[in-house]
Each structure stands twice: as structure tokens, then as C-alpha cells.
Design goal:
Length: 130
DNA sequence: ATAATGACATGTT
DNA sequence: TAACATGCCATTA
């Protein structure tokens, strides 16, 4: 299922790094599925609270380098900001920061090990200049 | 089966 | 820079 794959990718984002929704989607094999990533993370809130705290949802932001959640039952933009700050990423008051400075850029090798298809690896390289 | 719904991305104004 | 429009596509109703 798409959901499982996406969650797996999100779990691979290292401490102090971030990835955009579109980037996660691409790595999960859904080149244009950015919105789905957001959907999945939102629908997974309860599972996260259920104990699975190894899902770093706060490391996923939009490609403009801006926190884009509007606030849900359990998470708020401010919470995400705090989480990022705790990892050394200072988010400005307008909820933006320099994403390129912290973007998760796995090497093609790593991507291969993640079970990613060659065509997607190529797209990653082309788009994010690995 | 059809249509609406997003924690998005990009190009145009 | 910021607002707007259009494209996206798995889920859900």
C-alpha cells in the first residue's frame, strides 16, 4: 500500500533534516503525489499517538520551506516549529526557513538500498541535485 | 461510476 | 513578494 511506503520513507529522514511532501512522494514512487503524503500523515495522527513515535512527521514540510499544516486535532503549526527547533532548525515567525540548508539528500546508492526504482532515482537526482 | 477533497507543487500575474 | 489558477491523484462519499 502507498501508505506503508510513505511512512517508511518518512521514517528514514534523519534527525535535523527535512524533506518536502513532493520529495517524499517521489521517493515513495508517486512522482506527483505530494498531496497524498499530507493526507496520509494527517490520517496517521492517531497511530502516532498510539505509541509509534518513530514517525518524524514534523520533518516533512512544503517545498517552499514553509510549515503548511493549519492545525489539526492533535498537531499545530507551533508544535511543528518547536519540534524542528529542538533539532537545531530555527523556524522564523512566519513559519518559514531555508529548506535547502537542511534538505535530506540521500545518495543514489542509499536510494537504491531503500528499494527505489532506477527511474525514480534519476528523477531525484535531476530534481534535487543529489 | 462520478465527484469532491486535501499537512502540495508550479507557473503566471 | 504574494496572491491566484491549474495540475495532481489516492481516498472517500
Amino acid at each position: 500500500m502507498i501508505k506503508k511506503k510513505v511512512l517508511k520513507i518518512v521514517q528514514m529522514i534523519p534527525y535535523g533534516k527535512v524533506a518536502s511532501y513532493g520529495q517524499v512522494a517521489l521517493m515513495a514512487g508517486i512522482p506527483r503525489g505530494a498531496r497524498m503524503v499530507g493526507q496520509i500523515l494527517r490520517n496517521t495522527e492517531e497511530d502516532i499517538l498510539a505509541g509509534m513515535d518513530d514517525l518524524p512527521w514534523w520533518r516533512v514540510i512544503n517545498n517552499a520551506g514553509r510549515i503548511s499544516i493549519k492545525g489539526t486535532k492533535y498537531h499545530t503549526p507551533l508544535m511543528q516549529k518547536e519540534k524542528l527547533a529542538a533539532e537545531g532548525i530555527e523556524v522564523k515567525d512566519d513559519l518559514t526557513f531555508d529548506i535547502e540548508k537542511y534538505r535530506f539528500r540521500p545518495s543514489p546508492d542509499q536510494l537504491g538500498k531503500m528499494g527505489l526504482d532506477d527511474k525514480f532515482i534519476d528523477l531525484m537526482v535531476e530534481k534535487f541535485f543529489i
